Amino acid sequence: MEEIPVKVAVRIRPLLCKEVLHNHQVCVRVIPNTQQIIIGRDRVFTFDFVFGKNSTQDEVYNTCIKPLVLSLIEGYNATVFAYGQTGSGKTYTIGGGHVASVVEGQKGIIPRAIQEIFQSISENPSVDFDVKVSYIEVYKEDLRDLLELETSMKDLHIREDEKGNTVCTRC
């Protein structure tokens, strides 16, 4: 059987302090020993990976991202797509907070991947590497390049090039 090239993970964050203070309740539960969650009373969903509220940044990175980074080093393309409503924990998982002040265990996907990629590059001086990175935010169908502060949301579009590749272009 052919391996499916897209894997989907869900990470459930713990309640924030303000949510606890306002008596909010957790509405998502992990079904033990499965890759399933329950939302509300009876809506069950299955994923490739499920991380509960006590999961660590290390656990998420090693399970989901490290295999992609290793493939990337071998010359394959890789994409990580974080999706969720505002306040769901995307920024924490991806970045880990303010980069300058993040303690080692709190580092998110991006700092860990960058560290591993450039470590591998430095360990292989006889190999030529060409590193290209995009950090695109999709918000209400608008695209914004988070690495280019001057880019207007109206300037980026997803298109298909003449070879059939999906590309992000500036207008």
From TrEMBL:
Name of the protein described by the UniProt record: Kinesin family member 27
Species lineage: Eukaryota, Metazoa, Chordata, Craniata, Vertebrata
SMART domains (UniProt xref): KISc (SM00129)
UniProt superkingdom: Eukaryota
GO CC term (a single one): microtubule associated complex
UniProt similarity note: Belongs to the TRAFAC class myosin-kinesin ATPase superfamily. Kinesin family.
PANTHER family: CHROMOSOME-ASSOCIATED KINESIN KIF4A-RELATED, KINESIN FAMILY MEMBER 27
Keywords from the UniProt entry: ATP-binding, Cytoplasm, Cytoskeleton, Motor protein, Nucleotide-binding
UniProt subcellular location: Cytoplasm, Cytoskeleton
Major localization class: cytoplasm
Coiled coil: none
Family annotation (Gene3D superfamilies): Kinesin motor domain (3.40.850.10)
